Amino acid sequence: MQAIGLVETRGLVVAIEALDTMCKAANVRMIDLKRVGSGLVTVIVEGDVAAVTAAVEAGKQVYTVTGGELVSSNVIPHPHPELALAFTL
Predict the structure, then answer these.
(1) Which of 1, 39, 47, 82 is the most exposed place for a label (fewest CB within 10 A)?
(2) What is the pTM of this model?
(3) Would you list the domain boundaries of the chain?
């Protein structure tokens, strides 16, 4: 795992649309989709640093087009190996 990208939104439909856009924009793979509660959904992808960065940026653009609520986004380059234990693979 070279990088992890996270996009958090309020609402499942727009999160799935963002995930679709992210996977089409760059060579990334979904590793998890977490529904936290209160409508919060986090999409997590992995790939090389450049691909994950491009995917997260593309995913964020979905929210400007759809009017969905982007809560947060982040790219973690070269994450610690034990971080993968937090995700259901």
Answers:
(1) 82
(2) 0.89
(3) 3-86
